[in-house]
Specification:
Length: 221
């Protein structure tokens, strides 16, 4: 039991750090605040994570592992309904680690490891979206010229990567709060898939509009 205690403490540190980073933004969270929130001494925190970058890198490793597992399922997307579920699941993961996207440019400028690894994240996202489009094409859901696939996939990845930043700029005080999550994720999934509208078969295009209508919150009166 004694040997397992450090791992439990390290796990708890990461959970609280993620919550604080997501709530306040990574630049606004110090190791002193993290240790105070946990009710442990700064020395105990440094024992597990000697530098703030180690906390960031550990959280990023978790995100990257979960992301790669999800992206590997992209070639099983057959139609708009599958694509809607896939994109929403992807946005849920991004939301879970939203501090990375909220503070992305700042993090990349300070952390060489993230700078390198996030380039791989973009490449893997693009690869996965292309695999999704190829699969949807094989099943007759989209009709897209191979010469347009790269550009379309890149545009979809741009929206995936910067959607939460867009939401934040629109409403800095509320956009990244938990109560805003579902609406933000739905809008993100909608706008990514909307890029496919010119290529969707008529029935699939109608189904996309149905999905958007079914999951969108009612307009304020």
């Amino acid at each position: 039991m004694v040997k397992k205690a450090p791992r439990r403490t390290a796990e708890r540190i990461l959970e609280v750090t993620l919550e604080l980073f997501n709530r306040f933004g990574e630049p606004n969270v110090s190791t002193t605040l993290i240790s105070a929130e946990l009710g442990i001494s700064p020395g105990n925190l440094y024992y597990h994570y000697p530098a703030k970058d180690e906390l960031i890198n550990s959280l990023f490793d978790r995100y990257e592992k979960a992301l790669n597992e999800l992206l590997n399922a992209s070639d099983s997307v057959r139609d708009v309904e599958d694509a809607w579920f896939f994109m929403h699941t992807l946005f849920e993961l991004i939301w879970q680690y939203r501090f990375l996207y909220r503070d992305l440019n700042d993090l990349l400028s300070k952390n060489r490891r993230l700078e390198t690894h996030f380039q791989w994240v973009l490449k893997n996202k693009t690869r996965a979206v292309k695999a999704m489009l190829d699969s949807m094409s094989r099943f007759g859901a989209v009709r897209i010229d191979s010469r347009e696939m790269e550009t379309t996939a890149t545009s979809m990845v741009v929206v995936l990567t910067y959607w939460l930043s867009f939401e934040y700029v629109k409403d800095p005080r509320n956009a990244l709060e938990p109560e805003s999550a579902q609406a933000a994720l739905m809008r993100g999934a909608h706008h990514v898939l909307n890029l496919l509208v010119p290529y969707l078969e008529a029935e699939q295009r109608t189904h996309l509009l149905t999905l958007v209508g079914a999951y969108s919150p009612p307009a304020p009166t």
